[in-house]
Amino acid sequence: MSKNNFQDYVCRPYCFFFKDGEKEDLACCGAQIVERLVDSSRVDLMEMPPLQKEIHRWNTYRTSLGGYICRRCPFFAADCDFQAPDPPDDTEPCGGFILLAHLFDLKMIDTGDLEN
Ligand code: SF4
Ligand code: SF4
């Protein structure tokens, strides 16, 4: 998968972990799902209302969407504090999760969009 595409609309604007110019060998599952939805024209991010980062939103969806997004993420087991047991309340997920939670909240996607 090309990283150039989604870096511009997922990682750079929304991800706490993104470092410009730093090479990343793996893409998280959240970014991969967003890229699939955009590439298949299922989602047009230009139609998305502005995203404000809000802790309550990603905490609301931590378990329900995490089962679809995070369980198969290469960072789930060891690297992602967001899905660690008993994380601090202000632990931030990746940009992919933040964007998917926003789209889900807006009803622009449903759980069926997260399954493949
Ligand atoms: S964790 Fe995901 S959203 Fe964040 S920089 Fe890496 S690939 Fe992008
Ligand atoms: S929140 Fe963590 S485990 Fe979930 S998709 Fe993002 S990086 Fe992966």
Model description:
- The protein is mainly alpha-helical and 116 residues long.
- It has one domain (26-114).
- The chain is built from five helices and no strands.
- The chain is globular, with a radius of gyration of 13 Å.
- The chain starts with a helix and ends in an 11-residue tail after the last helix.
- The mean pLDDT is 90.
- One iron/sulfur cluster binds at residues 28-30, 69-70, 73, 75-76, 80, 82-83, 93-94, 96-97.
The biggest beta sheet reads: none
**Distance separating the two termini:** 15 Å
How many domain units?
Answer: 1
Low-confidence stretches: none
Q: Give me the count of strands.
A: 0
**H/I helix tally:** 5
Rg calc: 13 Å
Instruction: List the helices and strands in order.
Output: HHHHH
Q: What number is the mean pLDDT?
A: 90
Strand content: under 5%
Bound molecules: iron/sulfur cluster
Which properties best describe this structure?
116 residues; mainly alpha; globular; binds iron/sulfur cluster
Question: How would you briefly describe this protein structure?
Answer:
The chain has 116 residues and is mostly helical.
SSE blueprint and pairings:
Blueprint: H1 3-14, H2 29-39, H3 55-61, H4 66-69, H5 95-105
Helix pairs in contact: 1-2, 1-5, 2-5
Bound molecules: iron/sulfur cluster (2 copies).
